[in-house]
């Protein structure tokens, strides 16, 4: 069910539980600012989620409240995961769904990294 990205951060969301170690994940990368792990319901041969370690609902929330170090660290983590996963040569797609109309399902900012096959058009009609 899509979430309302204008609401305050809810630390009972699934990604907050993963960050606290209450739920497992298939970790790909972790540093002080970000965690990357395989999506449990992959939509491409490579489907990795990258999340900031801070409690941010959306890109606009993150860009407004995160420190410069958090923003740089998260952005670098996304690039590192793509490079380390050998996705750069073949190409990959980044996707961040924000709010109800975009279909955001978890109230914690996250970026999907898709790769491993041709990905088709930008939007389905």
From TrEMBL:
Pfam families: HIT. CDD domains: PKCI_related (cd01276). GO terms for molecular function: catalytic activity. PROSITE patterns: HIT_1, HIT_2. A motif (Histidine triad motif) lies at residues 108-112. The active site is at 110 (tele-amp-histidine intermediate). It comes from the Bacteria. Residues 14-124 form the HIT domain. InterPro entries: Histidine_triad_CS, Histidine_triad_HIT, HIT-like, HIT-like_sf. This is Histidine triad nucleotide-binding protein. It comes from Sphingomonas piscis.
């Amino acid at each position: 069910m899509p979430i309302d990205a204008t609401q305050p951060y809810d630390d009972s969301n699934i990604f907050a539980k993963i960050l606290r170690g209450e739920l497992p994940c298939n970790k790909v990368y972790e540093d002080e600012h970000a965690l990357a792990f395989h999506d449990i319901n992959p939509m491409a041969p490579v489907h990795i989620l990258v999340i900031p370690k801070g409690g941010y609902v959306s890109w606009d929330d993150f860009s407004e409240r995160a420190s410069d170090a958090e923003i740089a660290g998260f952005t670098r983590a996304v690039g590192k995961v793509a490079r380390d996963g050998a996705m750069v040569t073949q190409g990959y797609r980044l996707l961040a769904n924000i709010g109800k109309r975009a279909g955001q399902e978890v109230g914690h900012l996250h970026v999907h990294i898709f790769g491993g096959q041709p990905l088709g058009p930008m939007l389905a009609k």
